[in-house]
Write a structure and sequence with these properties.
two-stranded parallel ribbon; rod-shaped
Length: 233
């Protein structure tokens, strides 16, 4: 269990209150949480829980499998290069076919290596995003907004956005829906901003796709050591 999974489990009650407050009381009209809700399409509790269950390990496992396939493909191309050749029209046709298949094998290996690197890049982005959301979740759990949401009391403590000036307002007591709605909106905006940043990064990577680095083959005048077969047709 990593930091995000642990924090998500320990703050489930707080996140449920955030979601409930947003659904019941909403947020100030111009609050940035509205745009983030539209962009992510989820309440913060659902977004964080979904991210906590989204592991980068399947992408890393797929990358390892793709690299294994690439090695097999490279070996196949090498085996073709070591096949014996023969003279005549049939031999020329075979040589051309062998060269074509070898080129295709190299291209396929390049594609597999690129796909593996792409999966690793996606996994790294997801892992970094999970860590970023975990840090944000730790901040909001200890923020003045969390206290205000749970108790209805505004206190001068660290805020969900990282400020330390008691950003909610003057001390207040009692189950004030407005105070709690403002606190929930601040917590939601802080968490959804991190989730949105991750989703935007992943969308950009998926739109770009793998970057294939083609293997350049330089022709060299090297005497062949393969056995030449003479076939009578």
């Amino acid at each position: 269990m990593d930091a995000l999974m642990h924090l998500n489990a320990s703050t489930a009650g707080l996140l449920a209150q955030v979601d409930d407050s947003l659904a019941r009381w909403g947020a100030p009209e111009a609050h940035p949480v509205w745009q983030l809700l539209r962009r992510t399409g989820a309440l913060p509790g659902d977004a964080v829980s979904g991210l906590a269950g989204w592991s980068p390990e399947p992408w890393r496992q797929q990358a390892a499998a793709l690299r294994g396939h690439a090695e097999v493909t490279v070996a196949l191309g090498g085996d073709l290069d070591r096949l014996p050749s023969w003279e005549g029209a049939a031999g020329d046709a075979f040589a051309q076919a062998r060269q074509r298949i070898s080129r295709e094998a190299r291209h396929r290996a390049d594609q597999l290596h690129a796909d593996a690197a792409f999966h690793e890049e996606l996994a790294d982005a997801l892992a970094a995003g999970r860590s970023r959301v975990a840090r944000g979740l730790a901040r909001v759990a200890a923020s003045a907004e969390a206290v205000a949401l749970v108790t209805g009391v505004a206190v001068g403590a660290g805020s969900a956005t990282g400020r330390s000036d008691g950003a909610i307002g003057e001390p207040a007591f009692g189950p004030d829906p407005t105070l709690r709605a403002q606190a929930a909106a601040a917590i939601a905006a802080a968490l959804l901003a991190d989730v949105d940043a991750l989703l935007t990064e992943l969308d950009g990577l998926l739109a770009r796709g793998p970057a294939v680095a083609e293997t350049k083959v330089v022709a060299a005048d090297i005497p062949s050591t393969a056995t030449t077969l003479r076939v009578e047709l």
